[in-house]
Amino acid sequence: MKVDQNILVLGICIAMQTQIIQGCRNGWLQFENSCYLLSKDAATWAEASMICIDLESRLAAVETADESNFLKAEAHRLNAKSFWLDGTDLEVENVWRWTVNGNKLVYLDWGGHEPNQGTSANCLTMWQEFGYRWADEPCRNVYHFVCEKRTPVGDNEIIG
What we know:
By secondary structure, the protein is an alpha+beta fold. Helix content is about 30%, strand content about 20%. Strands 1, 2, 3, 4, 5, 6, 7 and 8 form an 8-stranded mixed sheet that branches.
């Protein structure tokens, strides 16, 4: 019986450890089922995308008003001019898609008169002058960025 209790305790400890590991890493912020990193560094849209991939994440795809409000609040706190998001209309002008999944943007949070720069601006930002609502900007510009990593839900693995 003592051995069975030890195995049960070990199993519970491993499950609890797995739960901790699945949370956001240091410096990232949790909202719903994702972890976010609002960068302190700046990069072009393509560079930002690669940095996020190197961090095992992607540029953020904002799909709900709640998610947008969370990111706006964090952006206000950091007070940076602009943050790159995952959206682009590089393939077809004025057809905005998330590169992470190819889906058209359904939830929209454009600032006044945006998108407004046509073929010269094909990448999506949260723009400070619009209260961090969205704007289209030239992809070569250098801004801060938001990385997003989805967190596993209920996939605790028992090891051993």
